[in-house]
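Z., the sequence and structure:
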Amino acid sequence: SKEILVVNYVQDNPRLITKRDHYRARGVNTIAIVPLILRGEVIGTIGLDSTDPDWKLGSDDLQLLNQISLQTATAVDISRSFERTAQKAEQERRLTEITSSMRQTLDVETVLQTAVNELYRSFNLDTASCYLIPNQTMVDELAAPEAASPEGKEA
């Protein structure tokens, strides 16, 4: 639901029978579930529990909770966007590093071996290999070693 749900006397509410023991053990009397809504979709919830039998939420409280949920959903969106941007930047950095390593030579075999070794190292792989279409070069296959580190090992 996209509306705040407030349930008083949760221990007596038949809709919450599966959680009744949980609430009883914690002495919870009232709960409020506030949806986190982003672009019209519920992306999560904020849960509030109170053991105070007199705890009630007024209209000002509900407005405040709505504003907090909107701010929280927006902050989550910004954080996710930042994480995606950081992942993209890391991919770009890795690509630049691999490309730079390959450009240090004009020898096809060395370029391919460098590419395989860099991919092997960057992705923490068990194996990596590169195949060329016949007649493109005399190198048919280069493979990164199956050991933990490609340095100093021949393919």
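Strands lie at 5-8, 30-38, 41-50, 129-131, 141-143. The chain has three helices and five strands.

Let me know what you think.
H.
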